[in-house]
Amino acid sequence: MRINQYIAAAGVTSRRKADDLIAEGRVRINGAVLMNPGYHVEDGDIIEVDGRRIEPEQKKVYYLLNKPAGYVTSTADKEGRPVVTELVPDEVRVFPVGRLDYNTTGLLILTNDGELSNRLMHPSHEFDKKYLVRAQGIVTIAEAKRLREGVDIGGFVTSPAEVELIRHDRNSTIAEIIIHEGKNRQVRRMFKAIGHPVIELCRTGLGNLTIGRLAVGQCRKLSPAEVEYLNRF
Length: 233
Ligand code: URA
What we know:
The protein is an alpha+beta fold and 233 residues long. The chain folds into 3 domains: 3-53, RNA-binding S4 domain (Structural Genomics Hypothetical 15.5 Kd Protein In mrcA-pckA Intergenic Region, Chain A, Roll), CATH 3.10.290.10; 62-124 and 209-230, Alpha-Beta Plaits; 129-206, Alpha-L RNA-binding motif (Alpha-Beta Plaits), CATH 3.30.70.1560. The protein has 6 helices and 13 strands. The strands form 2 sheets. Strands 5, 6, 7, 8, 9, 10, 11, 12 and 13 form a 9-stranded mixed sheet that branches. A 4-stranded antiparallel sheet has the order 2-1-3-4, with no helix packed on it. The longest helix is centred in the first third of the chain and has 9 residues, at 15-23. It is elongated. The mean pLDDT is 93. It binds uracil (URA). Uracil is lined by residues 100-101, 104, 185-188, 201.
């Protein structure tokens, strides 16, 4: 088995990120830093990542977390900020699939299934991502239409999106938006492009998975049907 596949199957991270670990010299085979990203693991090889020995396969676990604001979507943060993996039981090491911004709340999948994560993050498998947004000011019907048709978020014009204006008060608008792409900070950049910066952002759905009544900061295991659904991709 190729080394990046082995690391992903062991639940350390996705295959793509395993390649980064190798490039950064953080992977050792039998005590020596691995230089060849195409290395095939042999029986008896001792593999270490960041000095920690990794074992071949682990029981696969899948969590759905309602991420709170003020958490980094990562397994560790250089600045010492709270990270999302602190919010799931530590029966095995898991990592987040995709990312939500530090101040975004809502649906986030965490797993140790590197292969699944790898497939879900591939650009050819863009899920519908549903967000509830509170934006500054009153978003007009014409501005919502612009969001639907595509806006320039700085060198990139967004693909058609679904947008529903739910209600507004004197200072802000609540809207629901479904996008099919996942550019960095895309929803925030889209609302900024129409002159209504985002105040609060919550991801409520990913494909047919929904956050439901899960409280902020809580997680639950995915049901077998939900895991099967994700495995179809
Ligand atoms: N779009 C954003 O702007 N932020 C997120 O966290 C997710 C989507």
